[in-house]
Amino acid sequence: MPDQSKLPDWLSDNPPSASKHRQTREELDEIVAGTEKGIRDTHAWKDTVRRVGLKEARRILRLGLLAGQLPGANPQN
Question: What global pTM score does this model have?
Answer without folding.
Answer: 0.61
